[in-house]
Write a structure and sequence with these properties.
This protein is of the alpha+beta class and 207 residues long. The protein is built from eight helices and seven strands. Strand 5 and strand 6 form a beta hairpin. It binds FE2/S2 (inorganic) cluster (2 copies).
Length: 207
C-alpha cells in the first residue's frame, strides 16, 4: 500500500488538494499575467504562476535541464516534448495506467499527474537512466528473456516500478509482486511474464 501511495500526485507534488483548490480560486480572481505573482488569500501569501510560460529548471537523470513552460505543463509532457526523453509513455494521461512512471526523489510517480513546475528541486530518474550505457540493464534484459512484453507501451513504466519495488522488497513472494506492481497496467496481459521477471531478479520463490 505504501508503494501505491507514493504515486498519488498530492503525495509527491508538495501541493495538497486544499492548496490546489485555494490556488485555483485565487488564480481565477486575478488578472491573467505572465510570470509569478504573489497574492494575499485566506490569510497567507500564495504564489501564482502563469498562465504564460515561466522558467522551469529540472534535475533529470543527474543533468540540469531548463525550459520555458506554461505552469500547466505536466512532467511527462516536459520530458517527452521539451527534453526528448520519450521513454516514459503517455497512454491514459490521467494517472490510471502507470505507463509514464518515473522516479521522483527515488519514489515512483505518474509523470502525467505531476506538474513540471512542482517537480523542481527533486531528483527525477527516467527509464533512460536505468539502462547501462548502451546496454540493457539486467532487469530490462529479463523482460526480454521472460517474454514480458508485447506492444511494449507499458514496459518502461513496469521497468521503473519494478526497479523501485525490488529495492523495497529484495525477496518478494509472488503475492508481494502482485500487490506491489498493481499501480501499473498491461493491456496486452503480460502479467505472468512480468511477475516471472521480478521473481527471477529477486531470486524469490513462487507462492
Ligand atoms: S499515462 Fe500516466 S498513468 Fe497512464
Ligand atoms: S505489452 Fe502492451 S500494454 Fe503491456
Amino acid at each position: 500500500m505504501k508503494d501505491d501511495d507514493a504515486r498519488k500526485p498530492e503525495a509527491t507534488s508538495g501541493v495538497s488538494r486544499r492548496d490546489f483548490m485555494k490556488i485555483s480560486a485565487v488564480t481565477a480572481a486575478v488578472p491573467l499575467v505572465l510570470g509569478p505573482k504573489v497574492v494575499h488569500a485566506a490569510g497567507e501569501d500564495v504564489a501564482v504562476h502563469g498562465p504564460g510560460k515561466v522558467p522551469v529548471a529540472l534535475n533529470v537523470n543527474g543533468k540540469k535541464l531548463n525550459a520555458q513552460l506554461e505552469p500547466r505543463v505536466t512532467l511527462l509532457d516536459a520530458l517527452r516534448e521539451q527534453f526528448d526523453l520519450t521513454g516514459a509513455k503517455r497512454v491514459c494521461d490521467r494517472g490510471a495506467c502507470g505507463a509514464c512512471t518515473v522516479l521522483l526523489d527515488g519514489k515512483p510517480v505518474y509523470a502525467c499527474s505531476v506538474l513540471a513546475i512542482d517537480a523542481q528541486g527533486a531528483k527525477i530518474t527516467t527509464i533512460e537512466a536505468l539502462a547501462e550505457a548502451d546496454k540493457l540493464s539486467p532487469l530490462m534484459q529479463a523482460f526480454v528473456e521472460h517474454d514480458a512484453q508485447q506492444c511494449g507501451f507499458c514496459t518502461p513504466g513496469f521497468v521503473v516500478a519494478t526497479t523501485y519495488f525490488l529495492k523495497q522488497h529484495p525477496t518478494p513472494s509472488a503475492d508481494d509482486i502482485r500487490r506491489g506492481l498493481n499501480g501499473n497496467y498491461c493491456r496486452c496481459g503480460t502479467y505472468d511474464g512480468i511477475r516471472a521477471v521480478a521473481l527471477a531478479q529477486a531470486g524469490g520463490k513462487q507462492s
